[in-house]
Amino acid sequence: MTSFNIERLPFDKGAVTTWAETNPRHKNWPVVYTIEGSDEIYVGESTNVANRMFQHLAVEQRQHLKKIKVILDDRFNKSVCLDLESQLIRYLAADSKYKVLNGNHGITDADYFERDRYRETFNELFEELLKEGVFTRSIPDIVNSDLFKFSPFKALNTDQSVAIEGVLEKLFEDLENKTDTPIVIQGDPGTGKTIVAVYLMKLLVDIAKSQPDEQLDSDSMFSDFFQQGYREQLTDFTIGLVIPQQSLRKSIEKVFAKTPGLSKSMVLSPFDAGASKEHYDLLIVDESHRLGQRSNQPSAAQNKKFTEINTALFGNDDLSWTQLDWIKAKSTHQLYLLDSAQSVKPADLPAEVTAALVEQARQANSFFRLVSQMRVGGGTDYIEFVGRIFAGTQQGPETFGNYELRFFDDIAEMRESIFEKEKVVGLSRMIAGYAWPWASKNDPTAVDIQIGNVGLTWNRTATDWINSPTSLEEVGSIHTVQGYDLNYAGVIIGPDLGYDPVAKKIVFHRENYHDKKGKENNPRLGIEYTDEDLLNYVVNIYRVLLTRGIKGTFVYVCDPALQNYLRQFCQPGLFSNK
């Protein structure tokens, strides 16, 4: 039996005045409410909802809203209402029927007494709202969507909050003093760098558009930045989010298109930023390690574009100019989010360039680290375990709580296990290193990956592959999954990696690595890449692939010696045998 009650009334002063007198709890009880329009919605919580409604009615920008829903429950308290408010905002933003008018600074994820019990009530409430058409999709469908995973309404963990607060303080200090300090946020896979970038974009826009007399529903560590003196510094402030990877960029564009205050035009490729006629006040660069140095580009048009941008910005086409230089030239302030260990091809910025960027930020006290795992259920222990395996420093087997790490001797069995996980939790995919040619790119009937009796094909699309209709039947490459989450990842470690039992180290087999741009020398800069150089990039690729799974990672290893090497780090029964 449900304990909550939903009261409905028009968003009208007369209706609210009458309704306010019908129950003492309309003026003195913690509640959660929504105010809906035809395609927009506002979610709030209050202990005096009648008074709060009068405040909303006085806001000119909300006059077009039509109806109110007030959720009352005898068991509600302030902590419960803050939690429910945040949950509804996150789900509504990702469901995308409505544009959510809230700012994101009040989103919370704090624990409190009997939270699990209250969350059961939240699920019942969701089902009721789903029946009424407020939502259009189930919770599992919403949670597995890119709109949820990259939402600007995510609840931040402590080090993300501290990093954003530090960024804001440094940015406003620079604006006040008319100085420019490069800011760097560094984090391992799964620490939420992209979430921080998206959240910060929304937060800055909300600060800029806030009204001096606006009442904020919730306290947060960012509420001070909505006071006088901050919004004025953001008047006509232009911001762009630069994302080097095409697929991730397209996903973020969809999120921005659904978020009031944000626009897909704010999401840029490095080429967009370099060629823009606009000079940005702030450019936030996600995956900064994937910015490019001068090299042979994927197309003749991009080679020409590189030359044109260099000439336009610097007066010459010196080969030393990189896309990092474009970012600096096209913006007054910069924020770089990076993990140099996720650099996956030689055309990416050299490690010494990103290291210099980090050191510069350290010296300026504008360097922040993200350490808490937001993605992988195995936590930091699992991330470090993967790193140690490739570095050759892992000592013996480990377990990671409920995180499901399994190795398979049979590729067909692993594939079937991924299919089963897809039925149960969704978002389960096969991914692999670029150890086979992409024959199906030109011949859709071709088999790309042949392992024993199992024939597989690469991803048919490079954009939003994870959510494409045929993705479960395909195998994704690094270029389709970097920056994304999966519930379960079935990783094929191809024959591009092997193990030398004499030298006792992982080795690279160039002949089995088929990413042409991933192993191409750079004659423009006079660079030839050795097998050792390329080994570092390929190891980074597998580090990324092995850290995509939220709930678990399944692994099949092609090279027998490498498989045997990995066995020593596995608990008994960790290898699955047909």
TrEMBL record:
Residues 28-100 form the GIY-YIG domain. CDD domains: GIY-YIG_COG3410. PROSITE patterns: GIY_YIG. Gene3D superfamilies: P-loop containing nucleotide triphosphate hydrolases. Pfam families: SLFN-g3_helicase. This is Type III restriction enzyme, res subunit.
